[in-house]
Design a protein that fits this description.
Number of helices: 5
Strand order of the largest sheet: 3-2-1-4-5
Distance between the termini: 33 Å
Number of strands: 5
Strand content: 15-25%
CATH superfamily: HUPs
Radius of gyration: 14 Å
Structural class: alpha/beta
CATH topology: Rossmann fold
CATH class: Alpha Beta
Length: about 130
């Protein structure tokens, strides 16, 4: 039995992660799906709805083959904080995230949740490329 923590921020990301996960998870596994938003005045109702839609793509796609639990966090944390807290709370075995190709300047200016997760987590991280080239 494996417990996976899957982070998503859009339907497109969810679709790519679903393509990957469909061959990777089984009936004994549990998939925790999270979407992390800042909250307050920095988060619109459209962003909340988009996050719910992103979660639904994965839940609908995986729900018949494995146990799925979903969470949308809107509590003022950075996504990395929500990932690390959820990993501890659910005692997960692995993270699953989508990664985008970005320039070094783009990483420096805007940060990278994926990079921070790789550096800060002591749990294995599965990185799924979001764009095939």
């Amino acid at each position: 039995m494996t417990r996976l923590l899957v982070g998503t921020d859009s339907q497109e990301v969810s679709e790519r992660l679903l393509d990957y996960l469909e061959g990777q998870v089984g009936a004994d596994d549990t998939v925790y799906i999270i979407n992390s938003l800042v909250g307050g005045d920095d988060t619109s109702s459209d962003e909340i709805s988009d996050g719910e839609d992103a979660i639904d793509v994965l839940e609908d796609g995986l729900g018949e083959q494995t146990t799925v639990e979903t969470h949308q966090y809107i509590r003022g944390n950075a996504p990395i904080e929500d990932f690390l807290e959820a990993a501890e709370e659910f005692d997960i075995d692995e993270h699953v995230i989508g990664i985008r190709k970005r320039s070094p300047v783009g990483k420096m200016m805007f940060g990278s949740t994926a990079q921070n997760l790789l550096l800060e987590s002591d749990i294995p991280v599965r990185c799924v490329p979001l764009v095939s080239e």
